[in-house]
Each structure stands twice: as C-alpha cells, then as structure tokens.
Amino acid sequence: MQNIIEKLKGCTFAYLKSLNWIVLLGIALFCIALAIVNNIRVDDAKSVTWIGSQDILEKPADIL
C-alpha cells in the first residue's frame, strides 16, 4: 500500500512539473480581464456587484 502511494505521489509531481505554468497563468489572467470587460459592457440589471463596492448615491433633485 505504501509503495502505491509513493508511486502516485511521484506520478502526480511529474505531471505537475510537465505543465506549462506560464501559459496557464496567462489564460487565467485573460479570463479575468474578459470577465471584467463583460461586466462593464452589460447594463446595470445584469451587472455583478463587486466585493467591497459601494452603491452610487443619486444626487438630490434640489442641487444643480
């Protein structure tokens, strides 16, 4: 059983080392940028509220 676990760990680490991490991080950043642009592009009814954002207060009618 211990031998199987060690083999599994070795295969997992070898697989993770074989990944091109720069490309994966680039894809993740590109997806985040597209999500932000899409949230800005859609109208307010479909827009997502951001964490920690404040509601925009309307100006009173008596102020010019």
Describe the structure.
The structure is a single chain. This protein is mainly alpha-helical. Helix content is 59%, strand content 0%. The chain has two helices and no strands. The chain is elongated.
SSE blueprint and pairings:
Blueprint: H1 2-18, H2 21-41
Instruction: Give the averaged pLDDT, no decimals.
Output: 82
Structural Rg = 24 Å
Distance between the ends: 78 Å
Pattern of helices and strands: HH
Share of residues in helices: 55-70%
Tell me about the largest β-sheet.
Answer: none
**Backbone structural class:** mainly alpha
Question: How would you describe the shape?
Answer: elongated
Per DSSP, the total helix count is: 2
Give the tally of β-strands: 0
Query: Which residues sit in consecutive blocks of at least 5 with pLDDT less than 50?
Result: none
Short summary of the structure?
With 64 residues, the chain is mainly alpha-helical. It has 2 helices and no strands.
Key phrases:
mainly alpha; 59% helix; 64 residues; elongated
